[in-house]
């Protein structure tokens, strides 16, 4: 593949994404290359991606930061655009991406997202603009290996903000929401534990309340009606769960030295 400054590879990380992968790939078919880095799918994800003309690489999944850095090492073009399997790129966003690459001047771009939660576009309570640093110049960006989830890009150079949003089909159902939040709260509790943060008694009451007021009032979750109220309550509840799990980590740690 001959390289020019305008060449772009879209990277999609997958694992058992047969329900999403076709539409995702079709939405990025305008890119110079689509690389699917699969983390061990047992469904038809790999076959579908190959059938749609993508370059597919299979690699054992360790964590998200590690997988994204591996993808950066596989890319040969000058620009990389990370898109998740449950996301879709609109023609407007594709046009804007092409334009900023052509104009140059920055090494990374934050992309806003339209999050659909339980089938509804959610514009408040913290789910918009939900900027993600996804478009980056190869050789100027790496992912912080210490952040295995909620990855952080370490960028060398200037960054900018795009206007056109990614479409993100975030949580299809309440059960999916609960499953993911259970994973995230467990991970976040472990991060706080590693940082030496020990929960105080008031954290179990004040922090969930702050989370609710922040999402429902400050971030205007009330504008989404009962939907916004439910999401604000759920996030407050999982904030409480995180502190409970953090406390358990400290208790288990203390027992080790008894």
Question: What is the fold's blueprint, element by element?
Answer:
Layout (H helix, E strand, L loop, with lengths): L7 E7 L6 H7 L5 E6 L6 H7 L3 E4 L5 H11 L4 E4 L4 E2 L2 H13 L4 E4 L1 E5 L2 E2 L10 E6 L3 E3 L9 E3 L3 E3 L4 E6 L2 H21 L8 H16 L6 H32 L2
Parallel strand pairs: 1-2, 1-4, 2-3, 6-12, 7-13
Antiparallel strand pairs: 4-9, 5-13, 6-9, 7-8, 10-11
Molecular structure report:
The structure is a single chain. With 258 residues, this protein is α/β, with parallel strands linked by helices. It folds into two domains: 8-170, Spore Coat Polysaccharide Biosynthesis Protein SpsA, Chain A (Alpha-Beta Complex); 173-256, no CATH class. The protein has seven helices and 13 strands. Helix 2 (45-51) links the parallel strand 2 and strand 3. The longest helix has 32 residues, at 225-256. The chain starts with 7 loop residues before the first strand and ends with a helix. The model has no long low-confidence stretch (mean pLDDT 95).
Features:
single chain, 258 residues, alpha/beta, Spore Coat Polysaccharide Biosynthesis Protein SpsA, Chain A, 7 helices, 41% helix
